[in-house]
User: Which sequence fits this backbone?
């Protein structure tokens, strides 16, 4: 089949006009320079990457260059970039966008990222890649700028939605794409209707074992790659998984996915130095904790009014956190008298707690550390308390929450970098900022979902981190915290190992909701001994799978 | 492109545009822009608009361009990926789109000599599917005999050329008109393309067909679905092989006869 030639008619028309009008004619010097410029800009081969020669100040790692090359040469510009957190997926994406722009295959790019990452993306593309990316703040930006960074929540809403659909983007990039795993959401539907000539989906959460999620993500990128929905259900779901099917699916996924792991990169990563910091309750704190714990033995009518495990975890964090929960309970109308009395007695006990043993320990630790420290806590109340408490002792800290507007996030990060010793982040704040200038993390209270731990650590244990990363896990003795930390996390070497692997294992074990699992154990066990045995069971299962999966685990 | 090449390129560009070089050393170029180049490069339309309205004295800017990063002077670092360089590349192309020159021969006797007309096109061919590459062509068409010469630009580089017809030269009237000359060169390009390997396009069509097949399976008969149409069109844009010939620049050259006797084998 012959390929049609399109000849530049515009130039020839102008030229004929100039002949008629006898000029104006260019000068010979410039004429020669124009040809020289084209000689430098012309790319003689389909193969290879041009981007590096355009980016003298950027030194990508070999695995990043290889990722970019594979996406362009083997995946035809449609790929899921699923490197582990901190390996620099943005750099890979930047290289790919740049390559297409240099070759003139891409002009208009739409970059959809979580609101908290919008300005960071724009800054990185501009400074590292000389890609004139513009943050979508006014609606005219859609029309007038070629490379636009926006949050998906803005883009999918009218009036933006219609304007976006009119733009004919050559390339669509979606960061944190695992949020699109559900094909019944508005976001999914929005992206599905976008024309995707070239498309990159970035995610740090490996999805390859959760079948419907991986199906949805791949179908967004390349519909039909995993077959139609009905066929996929028939082939892979429901029935006993056999090795052959799994292998076939894995091969298919590999064709559209790049996934680098720290250990595969062949690079020297800074160490993670993990330390458990045991905390001992004061007698008043101990008394408060045991009172709540005793609720487990109350009759169901009383017991069920409380989320016992939540309260216990809150008491381990700060009395303020527990107080907030109890106060909220009192606002409910349906409380019977017994419960009310009980709540009031607990509040009384809270008021009687003179100090916070954990905060005291944190203070000592922070004072002994020379550099900057990030404290992660699950609770807003604890965050506020800690900020006040540290200030009392002359330590400046900056709060950080996921709910902050993007400008505020950037501002807080800068404040922390330049003016404060401590950043206190709540869980939601864990995603979306890079803090590799900091080497110390205090897990003030531990999330029960191991993936969230990795996200916390991933904020600082990433490219650009020059020193070793110190992780301090606070755990109050003889409490739920100790159970989760020493009985489980330490035994499965959560903090040292790479989490991607753990996520796969948990999925395979059908324990993705590990939080609920642990909660059940702690709530329904009759004794410490029983808790220990059950936790040991989980540990054994996980470790067994880990050894099992170590060998054939290479996807990319 | 090496940093020294960039430096030389920039110097030539500014000199060709009548700018004064205020200061120059290896790796550094300090240039006084002309009004025209300030408008061309500095992106400050409001200043110029204001000035023209108020009739003030125009003060075009100076530009300090650094091509050696170790130089510790204030200025703009220019490297191969720098937007400034690509702005200047595009500006060059825009300002040097077409030309007419005469060959200048130093004659001792005051002897008249003939110059033959040539049509020259410098062409960038792009081969595009989901990948892209280029090929540069420089073709010259002898407007008297119809002979075509390849690599024409390099031939021109060896000659002494001038925008005004030299005193003792006279031009031979073209037999082929520029308009049909352009047509002839277009068909020469087409002919050259037929001799090329088309495997890249065939492979792209196979990739396209394969993705289209998957898409059809995915929508299984629901081809009325709007999403199907969107995806189908996206696949076309991604894979469809297209060859374009963009003209970098070109012109009429009046040259001493002789070249046309070693024409390009067409």
Assistant:
């Amino acid at each position: 089949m012959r390929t049609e030639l399109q000849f530049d008619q515009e130039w020839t028309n102008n030229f004929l006009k100039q002949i008629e009008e006898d000029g104006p004619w260019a000068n010979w010097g410039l004429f020669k320079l124009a040809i020289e410029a084209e000689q430098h800009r012309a790319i003689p081969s389909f193969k290879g990457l041009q981007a590096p020669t355009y980016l003298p100040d950027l030194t990508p790692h070999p695995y990043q260059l290889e990722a970019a090359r594979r996406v362009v040469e083997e995946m035809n510009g449609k790929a899921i970039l699923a490197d582990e957190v901190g390996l620099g997926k943005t750099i890979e994406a930047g290289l790919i966008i740049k390559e297409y722009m240099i070759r003139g295959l891409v002009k208009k790019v739409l970059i959809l990222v979580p609101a908290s990452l919008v300005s960071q993306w724009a800054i990185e593309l501009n400074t590292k890649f000389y890609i004139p990316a513009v943050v979508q703040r006014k609606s005219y930006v859609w029309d007038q700028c070629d490379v636009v960074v926006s949050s998906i929540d803005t883009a999918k809403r009218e009036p933006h939605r219609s304007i976006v659909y009119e733009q004919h983007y050559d390339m669509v990039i979606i960061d944190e794409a695992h949020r699109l795993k559900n094909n019944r959401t508005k976001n999914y539907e929005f992206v599905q209707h976008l024309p995707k000539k070239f498309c990159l989906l970035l995610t740090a959460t490996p999805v390859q074992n959760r079948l419907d999620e991986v199906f949805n993500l791949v179908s967004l990128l390349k519909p039909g790659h995993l077959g139609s929905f009905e066929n996929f259900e028939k082939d892979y779901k429901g029935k006993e998984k056999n090795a052959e099917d799994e292998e076939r699916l894995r091969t298919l996924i590999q064709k559209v996915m790049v996934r680098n792991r720290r250990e595969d990169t062949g690079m020297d990563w800074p160490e993670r130095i993990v330390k458990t910091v045991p905390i001992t309750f004061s007698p008043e704190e101990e008394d408060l904790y045991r009172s709540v714990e005793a609720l487990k033995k109350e009759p169901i009518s009383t017991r069920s009014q409380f989320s016992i495990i939540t309260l216990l975890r809150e008491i381990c964090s700060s009395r303020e956190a527990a107080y907030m929960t109890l106060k909220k309970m009192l606002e409910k109308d349906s409380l019977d008298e017994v419960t009310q009395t009980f709540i009031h007695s607990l509040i009384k006990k809270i008021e009687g707690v003179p100090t916070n043993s954990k905060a005291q320990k944190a203070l000592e630790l922070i004072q002994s550390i020379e550099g900057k420290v990030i404290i992660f806590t699950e609770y807003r109340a604890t965050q506020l308390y800690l900020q006040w408490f540290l200030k009392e002792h002359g330590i400046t800290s900056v709060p950080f929450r996921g709910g902050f507007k993007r400008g505020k996030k950037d501002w807080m990060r800068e404040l922390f970098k330049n003016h404060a010793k401590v950043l206190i982040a709540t869980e939601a704040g864990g995603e979306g900022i890079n803090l590799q200038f900091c080497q110390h993390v205090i897990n003030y209270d531990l999330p029960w979902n191991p993936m969230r731990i990795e996200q916390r650590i991933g904020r600082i244990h990433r490219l650009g981190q020059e020193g070793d990363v110190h992780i301090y896990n606070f755990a109050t003795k003889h409490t739920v915290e100790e159970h989760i930390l020493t009985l489980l996390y330490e035994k499965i070497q959560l903090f040292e190992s790479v989490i991607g692997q753990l996520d796969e294992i948990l999925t395979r074990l059908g324990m993705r909701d590990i939080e609920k699992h642990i909660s059940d154990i702690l709530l329904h066990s009759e004794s410490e001994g029983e808790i220990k045995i059950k936790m040991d069971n989980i540990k054994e299962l996980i470790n067994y799978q880990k050894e099992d999966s170590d060998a054939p685990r290479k996807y990319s | 492109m090496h940093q020294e090449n960039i430096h030389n390129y920039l110097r030539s560009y500014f000199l060709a545009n009548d700018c004064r070089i205020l200061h120059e050393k290896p790796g550094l170029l300090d240039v006084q822009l002309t009004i025209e180049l300030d408008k061309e490069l500095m992106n400050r339309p409001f200043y110029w608009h204001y000035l023209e309205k108020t009739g003030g004295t125009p003060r075009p800017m100076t530009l300090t361009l650094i091509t050696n990063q170790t130089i510790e002077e204030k200025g703009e670092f220019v490297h191969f990926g720098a937007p400034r360089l690509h702005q200047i590349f595009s500006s060059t192309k825009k300002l040097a789109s077409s030309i007419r020159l005469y060959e200048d021969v130093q004659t001792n006797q005051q002897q008249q000599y003939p110059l033959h007309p040539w049509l020259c096109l410098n062409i960038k061919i792009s081969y595009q599917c989901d990948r892209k590459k280029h090929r540069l062509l420089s073709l010259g068409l002898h407007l008297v005999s119809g002979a075509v010469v390849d690599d024409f630009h390099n031939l021109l580089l060896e000659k002494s050329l001038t925008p005004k017809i030299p005193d003792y030269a006279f031009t031979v009237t073209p037999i082929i008109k520029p308009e049909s000359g352009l047509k002839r060169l277009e068909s020469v390009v087409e002919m050259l393309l037929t001799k090329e390997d088309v495997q890249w396009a065939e492979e792209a069509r196979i990739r396209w067909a394969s993705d289209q097949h998957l898409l059809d399976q995915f929508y299984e008969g629901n081809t009325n679905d709007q999403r199907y149409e969107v995806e189908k069109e996206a696949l076309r844009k991604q894979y469809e092989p297209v060859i374009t010939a963009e003209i970098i620049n070109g012109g009429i050259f009046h040259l001493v006869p002789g070249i046309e006797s070693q024409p390009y084998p067409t």
Observations:
- The two ends of chain A are 36 Å apart (CA to CA).
